[in-house]
Specification:
The chain has helices at about 5-15, 20-25, 30-40, 65-140. It is mainly α and about 140 residues long.
């Protein structure tokens, strides 16, 4: 970025006869004198290219809003809260769906393990009943 002094020198080299006030709209000669006295370059608060730029400042305390401004702010806040609510519900639904699959798989695994255990217990009981029947028939036949 070219500073103000370089702008002035470039303008004088091209043969332009503009005064310091015409270049930037303010007293550049005063700024140049102050900068030479302080030996520090003075930086303009507002560059020459930003003179006509629209700046958005917060409204003054006594600024009265019109009804459509209140309506727009209400709609924006309502949409922000509503979309946050919708996003949270979508996230919660996906988490619940994953948890549901996890619980269903755990329930299936428990039923499968219980059925295997039940089958082993039934087979063990049937084996004990056969042994008891054999022992009963042996005792019955030997007492004759």
């Amino acid at each position: 970025m070219i500073n103000e002094e370089e702008n002035i020198e470039a303008g004088s080299q091209k043969g332009k006869t503009q005064s310091h006030e015409e270049v930037n709209g303010e007293s550049l000669s005063r700024q140049m004198r102050e900068s030479s006295e302080n030996d520090e370059p003075q930086i303009s608060k507002e560059p020459a290219s930003n003179k006509n730029m629209e700046l958005h400042h917060p409204h003054h305390v006594t600024h009265k809003k019109e009804w459509h401004e209140y309506l727009l702010e209400f709609i924006m806040l309502f949409l922000a809260v509503f979309l946050g609510f919708v996003a949270e519900n979508i996230r919660e639904t996906s988490v619940e769906h994953g948890r549901e699959k996890e619980y269903a798989r755990a329930l299936y695994d428990e039923f499968y393990a219980d059925s295997i255990t039940y089958t082993h217990k039934v087979n063990a009981r049937l084996g004990k009943e056969r042994d008891c029947d054999y022992l009963y028939s042996y005792i019955k036949d030997s007492s004759l």
